[in-house]
Amino acid sequence: MFVNNYPNHHDVKVFYWERILPQRVTTESFLYGEKHASPVRHALTFSLYLSLFFFLCIHSPVKSQDTQFSQFYAAPLHLAPSFAGSSGGSRLVLNYRNQWPQIPGTFVAYSFSFDHYFPRYRSGLGVILFRDQAGSGNLALTRGGLNYSYNFRITPNWTVRPGIQFVYEQRTIDFFRLIFEDQIAPDGSIGPSNSMVNPIERISYFDAASSVIAYSENMWGGIAIANMMMPNQSMTSDEISRIPIRTSIFGGYRINYGGAFADQEAESLSFAMHYKNQGKFNQFDIGTYWTKNPVFIGLIYRGIPVFNNPANGFLNNDALIFMGGVRTENLRIGYSYDFTISRLVNNTGGAHEISIIYEFNQQIPRGGRQRPPLWGM
After folding, report:
1. Angle in degrees, CA 72, 31, 12, rounded to 5
2. Could you report the per-residue pLDDT of 277-288, keeping only the tens digit for each?
3. Alpha-carbon distance 97 to 351, whole Å?
4. If we measure between CA atoms, which residue out of 26, 130, 98, 155 comes closest to residue 348?
5. Where are the domains of the chain?
6. List of residues 6+ apart from 207 with CB closer than 8 A
7. To which H or E segment does residue 369 belong?
8. By the 8 A CB rule, do 15 and 6 touch?
9. How far is CA 220 from CA 67, 68, 274, 283, 326, in A?
């Protein structure tokens, strides 16, 4: 969903929190509560604010942002089409994300993918199904995509894997479940609204993405470009709102140690980063993972503090992400929690995320040079 995981979308926040809210209700009173406000007023006010937020996203020049998973390497085809077939065999992946559960009409995303590697053709094929549902207006995005990748060596130790993705997307919304400012009467009753002009409850379009990754036995890096066709996502017939191109840069390094003796279990420490840019918005994740079979744990920081904007009071410190899980030879199950460290810390409930990866029919052994060193992350 848009603005979902992007902590530093200042234009949206400033416009929404400081200009749209009525003069009698300040930003601080909404975030932390008014001592003398009634529960009914709080409920109506919050419904209004949430509806205005969706109105801005679908009816104004504000550009929407794509959903991102905190366990980004556990959602390989969502991250980059180059990961199609990267397991060296067949792979099933399930991802679930529940963001801001304390807010009514929470933001929930689901992803399912399957991919397979064909060693004879040095190629990988994959399909991905994704759904993102947001808010009380059931603003939803459903996506189906086909991924292809090809790998080749550029040196004895380095492999390059370009990839491409073609997707079909559909956006829907239930306008009748939204509440706008002109609907709320002085007595608290809800009336009809004239805020929407020529609404469209369902739009569909095609899009494409491409990527390339390079990796050795313990190091990797890549770039992915999504929304290459910049389709129009406007939910009104008299507006044009194109999805901005999203650029992702990711990479990491793994250190293996232990396991020198028969009674020792091998361990690894990995460092990973993921930077994203879409329109005016940026996001940066950096962290580390420790793995010792069958357990792995990780800690990731999300934010870009060097771009703080103290003039508006919005700092680019978004979240600390705690994750952990178990893995076997073919199965990996992970859980992560986004602990909010921005000024919304007491109002959102963070985010919960679950990932399940199952590999089978493996034709390339783990650690083979045709596989990126990401298993267990």
Report:
1. 55
2. 998 888 999 999
3. 7
4. 98
5. 10-360
6. 166, 167, 168, 169, 226, 227, 228, 229, 231, 243
7. none
8. no
9. 23, 20, 12, 20, 23
Q: What tokens appear for 63 in the block?
A: 């550009």
151: nearest Cα among 372, 374, 370, 373:
370
User: For 124-150, how does the pLDDT look when each residue is reduced to its tens digit (9 = 90+)?
Assistant: 999 999 999 887 667 899 999 999 999
**pLDDT tens-digit readout, 220-276:** 999 999 999 999 988 877 788 899 999 999 999 999 987 655 556 689 999 999 999
Q: By the 8 A CB rule, do 204 and 170 touch?
A: yes
Name beta bridge partners: 284: 275
Q: Phi and psi at residue 239, in whole multiples of 5°? A: -130, 155
Query: Shortest CA distance to 233 belongs to which of 129, 144, 140, 110?
Result: 140
Tokens 């994203």 belong to 276
Q: Per CATH, is 10-360 categorized as 2.40.160.40?
A: yes
Give the C-alpha separation, 147 to 87, whole Å.
14
Tell me the backbone φ, ψ of residue 35, rounded to 5 degrees: -60, -35
Which residues touch 132 (CB under 8 Å, ≥6 apart)?
Answer: 1, 4, 67, 107, 108, 109, 110, 140, 141
Nearest Cα to Cα of residue 322 among 72, 107, 70: 70
Please tell me the distance from the alpha carbon of residue 347 to that of residue 1, in angstroms, as a whole number. Answer: 19
* C-alpha–C-alpha distance, residues 151 and 128, integer Å: 20
- From first CA to last CA, the distance across the chain in angstroms is 24
Nearest to 259 by CA among 247, 251, 248, 268: 268
Identity of the amino acid at 85: G
Least confident range from 20-29, 60-69, 350-359: namely 20-29
> What would the mean pLDDT of 35-47 be, rounded to a whole number?
44
Using CB atoms within 10 Å of the CB of residue 28, give its burial: 0 to 12 exposed, 13 to 18 middle, 19+ buried: exposed
Average pLDDT over residues 290-309: 86
Query: Which position has the token pair 């369902």?
Result: 202
Report the distance separating Cα 355 and Cα 111, nearest Å: 9
**What's the CA gap between 176 and 161, in Å, rounded?**
46
Peptide bond into 305 cis (omega under 30): no
CA dihedral for 50, 137, 61, 341, sign (positive or negative): positive
State if pTM tops 0.90. no
Residue with tokens 């993705």: 165
